């Protein structure tokens, strides 16, 4: 039996290349991921690290599993701030062009505990809404 997954599907008015850059560029992720900067050389097996812009501390880490530009990006994901032993989960982004200016983005966060699915959904929701808004308008959402 497989573990539960958080699945998010959205359509974004952008190109696969711009969306790919938004997912893999640290300067770009800081804009919509509430200050988190992603860093990796994006070679399969290489580390992926997320840093908080407030103090440049490591917040999350993982390892690149799939890098098929601009179609599929997957990496393991482990929160570095939580205490206790953690088994890394997996995040997979699948990008599919729907027209010249619209892409379908599916995000699957799996290999997670059943009791954490709703928490992951609540965490990913604002990040992905911010990503979509930024790519379509050049502005981020104003959360209070």
Description of the structure:
With 144 residues, this protein is α+β, with helices and mostly antiparallel strands. 26% of the residues lie in helices and 37% in strands. The chain is built from three helices and seven strands. The chain has helices at 16-24, 26-32, 117-137; strands spanning 6-12, 36-39, 47-52, 58-68, 72-79, 89-97, 103-110. It has a seven-stranded antiparallel sheet. Strand 3 (47-52) and strand 4 (58-68) form a beta hairpin. It is globular. The termini are far apart.
Question: Topology, please?
Answer:
Elements: E1 6-12, H1 16-24, H2 26-32, E2 36-39, E3 47-52, E4 58-68, E5 72-79, E6 89-97, E7 103-110, H3 117-137
Antiparallel strand pairs: 1-7, 2-3, 3-4, 4-5, 5-6, 6-7
